[in-house]
Write a structure and sequence with these properties.
This protein is an alpha+beta fold. The protein contains 11 helices and 8 strands. A 3-stranded antiparallel beta sheet has the order 1-2-3. Helix 2 packs across helix 3 and helix 4 crosses helix 7. The longest helix has 25 residues.
């Protein structure tokens, strides 16, 4: 009798295992780094793919990784990530919970849908606060500090810092750099790598100064005390002097030009007379900027305040191109001080 019961149980277990194997062929789950939609910082979301009858749905684990920090064959975070051990442990726990939820649906004996599997897995992998999977910024890492500092800058300056960050990420080759990783020898190697595409020392110096500024910022913020630039000199080379001579300026100011060229020459003259005000600030002057014989404004790039005396020649050009004052819906002055009416080119 006992042997019959044992034989019957063995047959049942074999059939059950066969049914489960068939179900697992029809439906399965696996870890998947979704590189189809990279985030702005170049990272991709780690997800669990749930497939059934050739249809796939995804459950996000809330973790973003650089593609080079993920091993798709072993489904593990590589040692290029500074927290790879902690993340792999947390991912393994979540995957185990996902597999338990998956099996509870497919082995229930009833018919199931992809939506039901997806819902069960999504509930199971909601990370607990102690999971340690959330990516809190590591204060010892360089790139988060770099991004934080760049975000404080105005658009044109921020774009320059973002270009520097592209060079840094390329040279780091996917590695998450810590402040202490940047040594004098590292800087020399970085400069040599940039020289392959940017032969001008002055162009490379811009990126080096940006990196130095991030270190100064990070020291002020208490993120690090490391400073590799004490023994590293940022090299620049002198360039040919491009300033106009006094004689060239005299010829330019007295030049006779065609009518359509006159506004361009006047624009240059006024910029020169207002101690070299740049085009952005000149075009953004409002009627309120010109009062009591002075032009007053905050420079767009640095926000520094300027108050410049307007000589008679400059005042004449301002009157020549003075714009029409209008009021917007809020009752504020919306007109520019100057309106450059450029006639069509003749001929």
């Amino acid at each position: 009798m006992f042997h019959c019961v044992l034989f019957g149980f063995a047959v049942f277990a074999q059939k059950f295992a066969h049914c489960v194997s068939v179900l697992l062929v029809m439906a399965n789950i696996k870890l998947y780094l979704d590189v189809r939609r990279l985030k702005a910082d170049g990272t991709a979301l780690l997800k669990i793919s749930v497939s059934h009858l050739r249809r796939v749905r995804y459950v996000s684990l809330g973790l973003s990784l650089m593609p080079c920090m993920w091993d798709p064959e072993r489904c593990r975070v590589t040692d290029k990530h500074p927290s790879h051990l902690r993340l792999n442990n947390a991912i393994a726990r979540l995957k185990l919970r996902a597999e338990d939820a998956f099996l509870s649906v497919v082995a229930s004996g009833s018919r199931y849908t992809l939506a039901e599997i997806h819902e069960a897995v999504a509930r199971a992998v909601q990370p607990e606060p102690e999971e340690g999977l959330s990516e809190k910024p590591d204060p010892s890492l360089l790139f988060p500090a770099f991004e934080k500092f760049a975000a404080t800058k105005k658009e044109s300056t921020r774009l320059t810092y973002e270009r520097t960050l592209v060079h840094l990420r390329s040279y780091a080759n996917g590695r998450a750099l810590r402040f202490e990783d940047i040594t004098r020898s590292w800087l020399l190697g970085f400069d040599a790598a940039m020289a392959k595409t940017a032969p001008s020392p002055n162009a490379r110096a811009i990126h080096m100064r940006n990196l130095r500024a991030v270190f100064n910022f990070s020291i002020d913020e208490g993120l690090t005390s490391w400073y590799p630039f004490r023994k590293f000199h940022i090299k620049t080379v002198k360039t040919a002097k491009r300033a106009l001579s006094v004689e060239d300026l005299r010829r330019l100011f007295s030049a006779e030009v065609d009518g359509w060229q006159e506004p361009y020459l006047d624009f240059f003259k006024l910029s020169f007379m207002l101690v070299g005000i740049n085009a952005v600030d000149l075009l953004h002057l409002t009627p309120g900027s010109f009062r009591s014989g002075r032009v007053e404004f905050n420079r767009s790039k640095t926000s520094r305040f300027y108050s410049i005396k307007v000589e008679a020649e400059a005042a004449g050009l301002i009157e020549k191109y003075r714009g029409q004052c209008r009021r917007n819906k809020r009752g504020n002055d919306s007109a520019a001080l100057l309106q450059w009416r450029v006639p069509a080119e003749s001929g």
